[in-house]
Amino acid sequence: MPRLLIVKTGDAFPEVVETHGDFEALFQQALAGAGFAARVFDARREPLPDLAEIDGLYITGSHSMVSHAEPWSEALKPWLIEARERNLPMLGVCYGHQLMAAAYGGMSDFHPARRESGTHPVTLTEAGREDALLGALPERFPAQLTHAQSVLQAPADAVVLARNAHDAHQALRYGPRQWSVQFHPEFTAPVMRAYLARQVDALRDQGQDPEALIEGVAATPEAGSLLATFAKRVAAWLETTPHR
To answer: For the chain, which residues make up each domain, given as ranges?
Structure first.
């Protein structure tokens, strides 16, 4: 069994936590369904773990903003650089996506078109269709999204694996075992609806129809499969390189 770590970078809305679980619990639920377990490290409150004791890690979403450069977030950057140098498997999600991109030389900040929320289609690039992780997905698939910031400039050596009408960097690869995605593979349709219910005023303020977005929420099993697929990849790599 791979030693998986969930790097917790924030908390979901209280009503989401009460009804569905916090960000890390949503990850754990998805992994448990495939027979995997992962421990949690709260990056805001705990010292950085020893990378030698980790076989693969996930980085969660957050209501914080990468561009605000909070001390705990900035402290993760050199740790993530070392993890990449070790070729440690990584999968960043939303805030984790933006943080990884910023750590590796890109830029993450507020999107000029403002917030993207709801269930929206994402399309794989040619590189994405051939990718070891995302290549198992359909060329076009629905995903749950909620973010005000985006990767505005990808690192020079990153490969763009997916995009959509709102965001040119929906998924990136930084090395043979390092990925990040802007969308939320851990979100279920009920979680997405709860997020949209919280964002009604903000969405109206930017000219969107929140009721239509809530009505348009759908299940996203393809995107949701990424968390378990990543764990399976880590397990397979351990079989071939047990002393990584």
So the answer is: 4-188+220-240
Contact yes or no for 172/122 (Cβ under 8 A): no
pLDDT, one tens digit per residue, over 136-174 is 999 999 999 999 999 999 999 999 999 999 999 999 999
- The type of residue at 22 is D
* Helices and strands (DSSP H and E) totals, the chain: 10, 11
Q: Is 222 helix (H, G, I), strand (E, B) or coil?
A: helix
For residues 7, 160, 233 and 55, what is the CA-based torsion angle, rounded to 10 degrees? -30
CB atoms within 10 A of CB 197: 13
How big is the chain by its Cα radius of gyration, in Å? 17
Q: Record the pTM.
A: 0.97
Domain 4-188+220-240 falls in which CATH fold? Rossmann fold (3.40.50)
Q: How much is the mean pLDDT over the chain?
A: 97
Please determine, for residue 118, whether its predicted confidence score (pLDDT) is greater than 80.
yes
